[in-house]
Specification:
The strands form two sheets. This protein has a six-stranded mixed beta sheet with strand order 1-2-10-7-8-9. It has helices at about 5-10, 35-40, 60-75, 90-100, 115-125, 135-150, 160-165, 165-175, 190-205, 225, 250-260, 270-280, 290-300, 325-330, 340-350; strands spanning about 30-35, 45-50, 80-85, 105-110, 125-130, 150-155, 180-185, 215-220, 260-265, 310-315. By secondary structure, it is an alpha/beta fold. The longest helix has 17 residues, at about 190-205. β4, α5 and β5 (about 125-130) form a beta-alpha-beta unit. It contains 15 helices and ten strands. Bound molecules: pyridoxal-5'-phosphate. Pyridoxal-5'-phosphate binds near residues 62, 187, 288 and 318.
Amino acid sequence: MEFAGVYARYHTWMDIPEHTLPVTLLEGNTPLIPMPKLAESLGGGFSLWVKFEGMNPTGSFKDRGMTIAIGEAAGRGAKVVICASTGNTAASAAAYAARAGLRCVVLIPKGKVAAGKLAGAVAHGADVIQIEGSFDDALSVVVEISNRHPIALVNSLNPYRLEGQKTAAFEICEILGSAPDWLCLPVGNAGNITSYWMGFRQYHAAHSCGLPHILGVQAQGSAPLVLGHPVEQPETVATAIRIGKPARGEEALSAASESGGQIMAASDDEILAMQRLLAASGVWVEPASAAGLAGLKKQLDQGRMDVRGQRVVAVCTGHGMKDPDIIAKSMQPPALLPLDYKAIEKTILKGLQ
Ligand SMILES: *Cc1c(COP(=O)(O)O)cnc(C)c1O
């Protein structure tokens, strides 16, 4: 069967209104990439895959939920959608709104959004507003605006976002033939961990495919679910999870405890080290996307998890290409040589020594 996006493939599995329209960019059906070399470097003895959600149309998993949230808004006659965003939600909402012919307004925290994400939102014609505040502040404002005006909220407080996002769990079970033993992923506003847990439970109820333990990973400077209280000024290089008051925090904690997993924190250094390890295996993700695996590595290194003989899937939520700054900052500028064969040859051979 030809794949025509998550609505076409899975809408009968979704709790969504009849009026929902298919508004698709053929999101979903992302690769589940075996990572044997990375598993070896984490101690070996288990199987590891990356669910590479950076391969969605706008470069993050947000597209899975946005196709449904925008399709629902368009179907009930909304003309404008709004969201707060650390970047990827904005890029995704802008693209799907453009597809559906809706206006899109996005609020972003000033100076904290990766250039490629902002550019995406602008390219698709969204009205982008920076505010002097955090993501959490932006979210409170857009919630209030959507309550007072006929403007549809497409943050993951919108339940249809989760209905779309849960399809990633279905895809993993279909490819592996059953649920993995562990699923690890980054946690920001906590919509995605909530979606995966919904998806795995639903698929298990229908197909007895088992349930994974869920390891949700926050950034250390932005870890309200680990600390047990909101963080007023979240800080982390992983801007997509720089969120101090997760909208679905309670559900995230339930997903972790019901699944026999946990929510933990990884430091920026650990996250960036994992971003480099993934890149060394050919998978370039943005910093937030490396958090799940950074958390796994930390647990394994400290002997707090035993995955020998097990199957582990790490969700890499967004592509590295939209957030190149962090790599560019740490790299030597490329050597600049005159067009002189001998000089170029000498430099190449020296580099290979
Ligand atoms: C949105 C996002 C997250 C966090 O997902 P939540 O549903 O907010 O927990 C993680 N990584 C990337 C790349 C994202 O865009």
